[in-house]
Amino acid sequence: MSSAAIKAEGLSKFYGPFAAIRDVSFEIPQGQIVAFLGPNGAGKSTTMKILTGYMAPSAGRAFIMGHDVAHERSAIANRLGYLPENGPLYTDMTPRQLLRFMGTARGMSGGRLEDRMAAVIQQCSLGSVIGKPIGKLSKGFRQRVGMAQVLLHEPDVLIMDEPTSGLDPNQIRDVREAIRSIGKSKTILLSTHILQEVEAVADRAIFIHEGRVVFDGSINQLHAGRELDQRFAELTKAS
Q1: Within a 10 A sphere around the Cβ of 125, how many other Cβ atoms?
Q2: What CATH number should be reported for the domain whose range is 6-238?
């Protein structure tokens, strides 16, 4: 059993002759915020779907907190929170109603459910909109509702796919602050193609291009004395 919070071991996904990802391997220790970086179509979402159990790999294995994603689904469900890009929300519900519904679906009840709802409402700054229909909220607030939902059951690991996509600058700042706050007590893998996101929130970067990992290291190592947009171009050309 691995001590890593997240582990990808030789992950590949094929659609006929096309390889969405090929031999993707990395380990993320507990307590790290890692940016999963790459251009559109590089394989970020495919890798995340495999890590969360939403998709089966063609080859390789994935682990969350030492549990095999393919064979220990119930254990994974208790340790993992997944926020997909544009994650579905019940727009006719209020944030409070959604949190109660999701908590009940996870078997939470009574004082624990009430305590956890209060905690994530505060953590994600939802107090001002808690009684409003989700469909009436801005995209930034809807993203916070999604974050509150995945935090409700106190997972050890959070996987977020493009959490600031489509947000305005103020909303981006708010979501990044929330991620930094959450990252003080959680392990986070954050998919993005936005270079500023890396410096704003991450301890480490993994860069994927054309389905392969082409860089894995600290933010300073990623910079390598150059601007990030220049490094992005270099790593893209390197494959």
Answers
A1: 15
A2: 3.40.50.300
User: In the chain, what are the domain boundaries?
Assistant: 6-238
Model pLDDT for residues 66-109, shown as the tens digit of each residue: 999 999 988 898 899 999 877 779 999 999 999 999 999 999 99
Residues 6+ away with beta carbon under 8 Å from 37? 44, 192, 193, 195, 198, 205, 206, 207, 208, 232
Measured distance CA(88)–CA(54) in Å, rounded: 15
Helices and strands of the chain, counted as H and E runs: 9, 10
Residue 210's nearest CA partner among 22, 42, 27 is 42
In the numeric block, the tokens 């860089």 are attached to 215
**Nearest C-alpha neighbor of 163 from the set 89, 97, 82:** 82
Q: Looking at the chain, how many residues does it have? A: 239
Question: Rounded to whole angstroms, how far apart are CA atoms 178 and 74?
Answer: 27
